[in-house]
Amino acid sequence: MAAVAASTSTAATAVLMHRLPTTKSTHFSALPYLPPRFSAPAFSTSFKHSSELRRSFLLQIKASSSDETSTPVDANELFTDLKEKWDAVENKSTVLLYGGGAIVAVWLASIVVGAINSVPLLPKIMELIGLGYTGWFVYRYLLFKSSRKELATDIEAIKKKIAGTAE
């Protein structure tokens, strides 16, 4: 058993060494060439210099926010707003049913996508279909100004239909 392990180890080493690029050095190793280590004083000064550069770099990136541009989100205000909206809902069971149905639909969709992903060639075909549809959508709706306006009016119509303010 030991002889078999030694022979396979030697064969694997021979194959590995055969694939390595040939160099003039007689030192064979699977590790890349590393430069010699610096002496302790040179390393410590380069480390100090490096840490000073990092510190100055971090100081340059440091950003601050002004009170004018951002407003802090108050958790109590958020919860009271959500509670008011929940109390305004008349059919709470329907909302819960739709929410549960959405969670189940997402779960089933992830199962279907996982099954499609396990078929060997199908994921690449689906990627090509997605790229083709994306190209068509950009050409149809985003490339020209008139089609962008058409897309914006379609989106506004859908928003009004969902919000219930359709004419």
UniProtKB/TrEMBL annotation:
The alphabetical list of record keywords is:
Membrane, Transmembrane, Transmembrane helix
**Boundaries of each Cyanobacterial aminoacyl-tRNA synthetase CAAD domain copy?**
81-164
Looking up InterPro entries in the UniProt record yields: CAAD_dom, CURT1
According to the record, the segments passing through the membrane are 95-119, 125-143
Q: How does it sit in the membrane?
A: Multi-pass membrane protein
Query: Source organism's superkingdom?
Result: Eukaryota
**Where, subcellularly, is it found?**
Membrane
Q: Which GO terms describe its cellular component?
A: chloroplast thylakoid membrane
Put simply, this protein is called CURVATURE THYLAKOID 1A, chloroplastic-like
